[in-house]
What we know:
The protein is an alpha/beta fold. It has two domains: 262 residues, Aldehyde Dehydrogenase, Chain A, domain 1 (3-Layer(aba) Sandwich); 193 residues, Aldehyde Dehydrogenase, Chain A, domain 2 (3-Layer(aba) Sandwich), CATH 3.40.309.10. It is built from 15 helices and 23 strands. The strands form six sheets. Strands 13-16-17-12-11-19-20 form a seven-stranded mixed sheet, with helices on both faces. It has a six-stranded mixed sheet with strand order 8-7-6-9-10-22, with helices on both faces. A three-stranded mixed sheet has the order 1-3-2, covered by helices on one side. The model has no long low-confidence stretch (mean pLDDT 96).
Amino acid sequence: xxxxAYVRSAWTPPHIDSTTAPVLIASAAPMESFDPATxxxxxxxxxxxxxxxxxxxxxxxxxxxxxxxxxxxxxxARVLNRxxxxxxxxxxxxxxxxxxxxGKTVGEARGEILGSIGQVEYNAGLARALYGRAxxxxxxxxxxxxxxxxxxxxxxxxxxxxxxxxxxxxxxxxAAGNAVVVKPASLTPAIVTKALDLLHEDPDLPQxxxxxxxxxxxxxxxxxxxxxxxDMIAFTGDSTTGIGVMKTAADSLKKVSLELGGKSPNIVxxxxxxxxxxxxxxxxxxxxxxxxxxxxxxxxxxxxxHDEFMDRLAAKVRAMRVGEGLDPATEMGPLVSAGxxxxxxxxxxxxxxxxxxxxxxxxxxxAPYTNGHFIAPTIVTxxxxxxxxxxxxxxxxxxxxxxxxxxxEAVAIANGTQFGLACGxxxxxxxxxxxxxxxxxxxxxxxxxxxxxxxEAEVGGFKRSGVGRQQAGEGILEFTETKHLNFDSNPNxx
Length: 494
């Protein structure tokens, strides 16, 4: 588990403000972001004031009022496609910046970037395909139904996949003809600002259509949510905060799109390809150190194969190489912050009290982990169904194990939480895959795979896992309103 000595490359922390990154509207003293693996400074970035937030919102409205952006799909497509090209030209830089600022492995970071570029390219195509419909309503009467942009969108994005989850909101919102004000998480502001500044510099993007504001959620984020100038809020984050956003938005009937928390089951039937299911279980539970809303944090395994599967899984997890993400040999990086590490260790303590720790459970504090926020990947068994380790989102490398005897029990266990974001299903029986896939209350069901996302397919949650859908056709429609134009050419009203 312990990595060999790894020599880091030199890094000069950038200072990001409105002069070095014009997409940023910020005038207050800067904040700092730090590498969660080493504690080293990653970047300094200017912080936005309330007045800066208001200025960003006002500029967005002015841009929509005075330019052709909202009505020119071809323009929007060109701008987005050129952004995709520039992102692809800078993959190495952004992968390193993600790893330094967020902590995930550089391989995971590259995957995040490539998936994000695909999102930009896909939405660039959709920008020219927001078709309405025409209806013959009566003699001399017809209707035209259009999809129009909502207006000014506030995109409030998280720290776990800062690049992807920002772009997943920004790309369709812009493709639909909106203006966007982005508020990135305070733990990962540099990667978001740098990525969006590449778009902001496009000469055909109207000034004011895109901006970034940086600062605490309780001030900067709250101002956006409450602003009368914001027409829609796209929020990705934990369920408690998301529910608060929705309640506040209700005061002014703002449109909302919410992707929230998860406690996703990963169901392994006895007839599964166990080698593939083992690899999928490790991926589901420990990608990004478990700091992903779709994490397969509950392993639901058929009793007849439980012992064999767990023995093999425990051996795989014990052998995982934990270290800093820039080391290409690292399989799991650190937690994003000291606060997140404490939260996860508190859940591990609950797991130890309620059940049995079979792998991990340790805070990694000695060299080479001294300055980082590392936890050993952890597996917990023998938990009661009421344990908080079973029912609550942990957002860390902790896998809870449950067992079942038949399909009905597997479905009941899978649906036994307040969440419904994702599910993994491992079986070679197509009929079973169909039955169980239809019965599980989740927005995404992966069958014989896990954590594969495609721009062409929607994602989103059931129950407390969210409102609305992201990606694909439904994803861009979230950022539109429907308008009916009714034409009557008859000489008389009636």
